[in-house]
Amino acid sequence: MTNRADPFDLSGRVAVVTGAGSGIGRGTAQQLAAAGAHVVCADVNAAAAEATADGIGKAASAAALDVTDRAAVFALIGNTAEEHGRLDILVNVAGIIRTGRVVDVEVADLDAVLDVNFKGTFHGCQAAARIMCAAGGGSIVNTASGAVDTGQPEIMSYSVSKAAVVQLTRNLAAEVGRFGVRVNAVAPGLVRTAMTERHYLLPDGGVDEAARAAAEKPLRRMSPLGMIGEPEDIAHAVRYLVSDAARFVTGQIIRPNGGVAMPW
């Protein structure tokens, strides 16, 4: 039932967040826990997942998970539902990027990106949807990208994988709505995460502020808000989508992107 006093409250709900070891995944796990949910923080980097869960506290637990391992994804999601007696939320954030011009992309690199970004999301959707449909409700949020709305050089593999996530989201939403399950996606614009900061990180892990300013200056000009996003900006959108405030929202692609793209 809808919590009419506070439709954003997630108390008593159970969530799994993949890619929770850093960036948008970590920010999302923190947001959902702050709203009252118990969050399973899953990441291929076990230490990073533990760090996220430890930072949250009692409302979180950690799990090592390679989303390309279908059996492992099903096991984690199934075990979570069994342990807690429910599964209310799945947020698929885990993703990678490989760059290269279309004419130069190696098939192995394309396969690697599709395996994580698309198939990893598919595995999670399939496992969670089976449990949620049987239970009569739940919310799945997938992570697409602002790259699905524009043509950009050297990120074909990434863009194609995220476009596939968009269509997966729509198709699944059309199939499971009658069971009370909602499926949506976020398509972030440029956000400060490890994926974007690779362009100006120093060998010791620090940030070259001059290089960052130079890299971000033209990107800020593209945004009507003149902003570069932070992980929490995307996490707030996810919190809305999984909450009762979005009870009438499914099959949608929410674009927290600073206004860089404004598709119909």
Automatic annotation (TrEMBL):
Top-level lineage group: Bacteria
GO molecular function: oxidoreductase activity
The protein's Enzyme Commission number: 1.1.1.-
Magnesium listed as a keyword: no
SUPFAM superfamilies: NAD(P)-binding Rossmann-fold domains
Pfam families: adh_short_C2 (PF13561)
Similarity comment: family membership: Belongs to the short-chain dehydrogenases/reductases (SDR) family.
Official protein name in the record: SDR family NAD(P)-dependent oxidoreductase
Organism annotation: Streptacidiphilus cavernicola
Taxonomic lineage: Bacteria, Bacillati, Actinomycetota, Actinomycetes, Kitasatosporales
